[in-house]
Amino acid sequence: MITVTTKFLKGAVAAAALFATTPMAQAEVLTMSSWVPPTHFIHTDFLVPLTEKIAEVTEGRVTVTILPAPLASPPQHWELARTGVADITWGNFTYEPERFVSMWFAEFPNAGTNAEAQSRALWQTYEKFLAGNAAFDGVKLLSVGMFGGGQLHHGSKSITSPGDVANQKFRMGGPIQEKLLTALGAVPVAAPATKAYEMLESGVIDGSLHTMESVVNFRLEDVLKHHTVFPNGFYDATFFVAMNGGKWDALSDADKAAIEGIIGEELSAAWGRNFDNQDQPAIEKMTAAGHEFNDASPELIAAVDTVYASMVADWIGAAKSAGVADPEGMLAFYNATYAALAAK
């Protein structure tokens, strides 16, 4: 005779066996490759909050782990995301200038000095004009960003006129900056910002191109004490946060919808705000240390504007070849959108 107790025990064993063979739902763990140290504000104030928000809005179903070391050099980070070597990466579009010809316009002079407004305007421009461009295939673009206008910085003298710029050796970081300096009669020297201090100390360069925050964050305030300010920025840089397209597609519809609510224009704005928040304290610190700040003269601004017009004309043809149907309209849209956002 089978007792009630025996029946209960058999049922419990069967239930336990079924539970043991049924896979539990597990969180999707994404990897992020980043190339700044964990003390940098991009890491502490932008990337870490992004990972926290993704976990929060998906209720822990999707988490992001920032790897302890980058998986490749900075210029390779778009490709890391596109090919899925890392799930999420960030970087500068014009580290691959030929791939991202469409983005050159936002790194030219006069792109603005309000990084949040710039970053919002660039996102809107991307969505309206570039979302279907082949250069962006293979990834889910999470955000774009700009840094609020780079300026000219010199180690030993004031730079205000075209004559002051001529024959001075400036460290710079990309082909657009190289063209700009060359056209002004300066001598461009390609090197990362991390090399600026030793190059200034050894006399290899006379000055360097940076945002205001970069002078302080790269600890250059002892060797760059003369700052030339262009009201609309001397040059700029464009950045991305990208996720592998296949990984994005594999997420559940619910998780994709949740993440969509924290990326795009709002995440782009957060990028820009972080740069805006860094710039003013940097200026205050350098002012207190006795640094010299000079407005670019009307003659120097006019010289830069002439170069800018030439750069835009050359870019229009290149952008059309890169699949941008209306480069002039795209640039006009960015400028108008930025102006409206910056005025708020």
UniProtKB/TrEMBL annotation:
<dbReference type="GO" id="GO:0042597">
    <property type="term" value="C:periplasmic space"/>
</dbReference>
<dbReference type="InterPro" id="IPR038404">
    <property type="entry name" value="TRAP_DctP_sf"/>
</dbReference>
<protein>
    <submittedName>
        <fullName>TRAP transporter substrate-binding protein</fullName>
    </submittedName>
</protein>
<feature type="signal peptide">
    <location>
        <begin position="1"/>
        <end position="27"/>
    </location>
</feature>
<dbReference type="GO" id="GO:0055085">
    <property type="term" value="P:transmembrane transport"/>
</dbReference>
<dbReference type="Pfam" id="PF03480">
    <property type="entry name" value="DctP"/>
</dbReference>
<keyword id="KW-0574">Periplasm</keyword>
<keyword id="KW-0732">Signal</keyword>
<dbReference type="InterPro" id="IPR018389">
    <property type="entry name" value="DctP_fam"/>
</dbReference>
